[in-house]
Write a structure and sequence with these properties.
By secondary structure, this protein is α/β, with parallel strands linked by helices. The chain has eight helices and ten strands. The strands form two sheets. The protein has a seven-stranded mixed sheet, with helices on both faces. It has a three-stranded antiparallel sheet with strand order 1-3-2. Strand 2 and strand 3 form a beta hairpin. The longest helix is centred in the N-terminal third of the chain and has 19 residues.
Length: 206
């Protein structure tokens, strides 16, 4: 399915939330849902859900709602997770190893195929994932056509790692380092900084 560059990123960001809710409904044995039911589960207005989905076509019928399996399949196709994406992790410290061992990736269309680190003590097998030296990283990316990487290195090393990833052909980066990365326009970066989220929450605490 072709991408829709005019669609706001905030809309794209809600699609995985809808997909997760649909997966949960299927696990409960349900076959039909509605924007109202999804909205109640997610704390999003039914009008917003209908508006978001309308960017991509018509998926439900007035009065009957959405067939869960069909909407689920369509969202997977839109998000391009109806296939398996191979990805790598850079940084094999505590966080990198935890990411490598996380079992939730595969069922959602992602597989960690290697991790990389500069510390010789961390090289070798870590569970099912091989930890290789960072000097091998760019060749590995090119040989395996890797498009997705996760950065789990200290902030002072993150930009250098990012530059190497981009030069090798990576186009999507999930960054756990507490720093804003500089990337070309054709590279998409998502940031995960737990401290920033904690700081946001403490604003609301008495």
């Amino acid at each position: 399915m072709a991408s829709h560059p005019s669609i706001p990123d905030i809309v794209i960001g809600r699609l995985p939330i809808y997909l997760r809710a649909l997966n949960q409904l299927m696990q409960q044995g349900k076959t039909i849902t509605s924007s109202h039911e999804l909205g109640q589960r997610l704390g999003i207005s039914s009008a917003q859900i209908r508006k978001d989905l309308s960017h991509f076509g018509e998926f439900g019928k007035q009065g009957t709602g959405y067939q869960i399996s069909h909407l689920q399949a369509q969202l997977k196709q839109i998000l391009q997770v109806d296939r398996e994406w191979q990805m790598i992790i850079v940084g094999a410290g505590d966080l990198g190893r935890a990411l490598a061992h996380y079992r939730g990736f595969v069922s959602r269309g992602f597989r960690v195929v290697a991790a990389f680190d500069i510390d010789p003590a961390r090289l070798g097998k870590s569970g099912d994932v091989e930890v290789l030296h960072t000097s091998q990283m760019q060749d590995f990316i090119k040989q395996h056509n890797i498009k997705i990487a996760m950065i789990a290195v200290p902030a002072e090393n993150a930009q250098e790692v990012c530059d190497q990833l981009v030069a090798a052909g990576v186009r999507a980066i999930l960054n756990y380092a507490p720093i804003t990365l500089s990337v070309p326009n054709n590279v998409h970066v998502q940031y995960i900084d737990p401290v920033m989220h904690l700081q946001r929450m403490t604003y609301y605490l008495e």
